[in-house]
Amino acid sequence: MWLLVQAGGGARRRCAGAALRRRLARGWLVAAACTALACGGDPDVASDVLLITVDTLRPDHLGLYGYPRPTSPNLDRFFAADRAAIFERAYSTAAHTSPSVVSILSGLYPHRHRVRLFFQLLPEETRLLPELLPGGFRSAGFVSNVVLTDEALGIAERFDHYDDFVDERESQRAYYERGARRTTDAALRWLRGRDAAERLFLWVHYIDPHGPYRPPADWRDRFDHAGRREILPAQISDYQREPGVTDGLYYVDRYDEEIAYADEQIGRLLDAWAVARPLDGTLVVFTADHGESMMEHERWFTHGYHVYEEIIRVPLMLRGVGVLPGRRAQAVSTIDLAPTVLRAVGAEVPPDMHGLDLRQPPPATPDRLLLATGGGGGKGRTGWLAGIQGGRKGILGLDEHGRVRESRTYRLDQDPGELSPLPAPPDDALVAHLIELAAADPDPGGVPLAARMGRELHAPKVAPGVSEENRERLKALGYVD
């Protein structure tokens, strides 16, 4: 079955018009601090922004974060510490893609932007970065995960151009995605068509490290392991489980292959950008929506189900205009990215964004509380709310009504693997604050009482204009039905 989306240029023009009307209606074009003409000669203002996000990427599997395997030579080169800021303790706001990505684009926590579930449409009142940019910008998003399609999340009209053609079928289930090579190809086609006078905001989201860990058939494997780590298949989700495989280190090898493949394609994107646009006028941001468990805690080679460090810690690097290079040990959140981008391009930061500008080392704020959510979804499932404050972490387990089922704390400075949970004393200020936040959440337990739901695609979403010959090639590769 084919899902042919007859969008083409007409749909993109409608998206552009809708985005423009939103900006005008809210006054952000008028309130913007500068235009492309005014900013053209200001070395402290970025003329362009390149935002790269990767699905399911742990920081400790990248060379920049000390991983011994060469999984990320292109990222290591581009974001070297003498030219980029590398954040060693960056946290996602959620263990799932949809709420996490909306936090990156809005600068808001999930309880404020209100996207809590897969296939939940973005509320009309939640503004995203493309709508807040100064006049003269052209915005584009290229995504590869079905939960980020317009049918699922409803954000295409917030961009001037939105490419969400996911037409490659997962190996283990009828979910559709698009691999890194073809996602990069699509982004580069758009980039080649841009006028040099335009200011650009380009967001590219890669799904490849997401399970099942299967790089393309023509990918030459680079990693193998010594020894063996026996696993129980019941600890692994059905979509991830490889028949007959009981060695956990095999899964680690395959995960690293997926990272290396994504890194190769990200290198293509970065190199092409450096040719097409002036790097000294660009702010480049790299992060992930969430991490992935390997062989820690209750469930292996997955995410979403909890707020453990391996799931909510993400890589975060910045390079470009106004960025002071070096390693940063202070804990930061992906809600800091939207205000960082807006300040970099000379735009006004909305008062409801409380994040920091990460281009320079932020002031020491030991009392700053960073939040992350996971699990939940109703039907008796436990939702989790984590609060990170300095070297401590508090966790609440919540039922679907927002009632506290359990609480615990960790000393991350002494127990980074969260192996020794500590009971929360009655007068613990961190846990008390989390209980207050949970009680005030408009979506009890992270489950919306009412929400506009989108649509889950059960067939490939194919770009308009794909020739019959190319359709047959995709079909032969198993990408489409």
What does this structure look like?
With 481 residues, this protein is α/β, with parallel strands linked by helices. It folds into two domains: 3-367 and 450-476, Alkaline Phosphatase, subunit A, CATH 3.40.720.10; 377-446, no CATH class. The protein is built from 14 helices and 19 strands. It has helices at residues 8-26, 28-31, 36-39, 73-78, 97-106, 110-113, 129-132, 150-153, 180-192, 248-276, 309-312, 337-344, 429-440, 468-476; strands at 3-4, 48-54, 85-87, 90-91, 137-142, 161-163, 168-169, 176-177, 199-206, 282-288, 313-314, 316-320, 326-328, 332-333, 370-375, 383-389, 392-398, 404-411, 461-462. Strand 15 and strand 16 form a beta hairpin. The longest helix has 29 residues, at 248-276. The radius of gyration is 22 Å and the shape is globular. The N and C termini lie close together (6 Å).
Please give the count of helices. Answer: 14
Number of strands: 19
Strand content: 15-25%
Main sheet makeup: 8 strands, mixed
Tell me the count of domains. 2
Helix content: 25-40%
Using the 3D structure, state the CATH architecture of the largest domain: 3-Layer(aba) Sandwich
Instruction: Please tell me how large the radius of gyration is.
Output: 22 Å
Q: Descriptors for this entry?
A:
481 residues, Alkaline Phosphatase, subunit A, 17% strand, disordered C terminus, 27% helix, disordered N terminus, globular
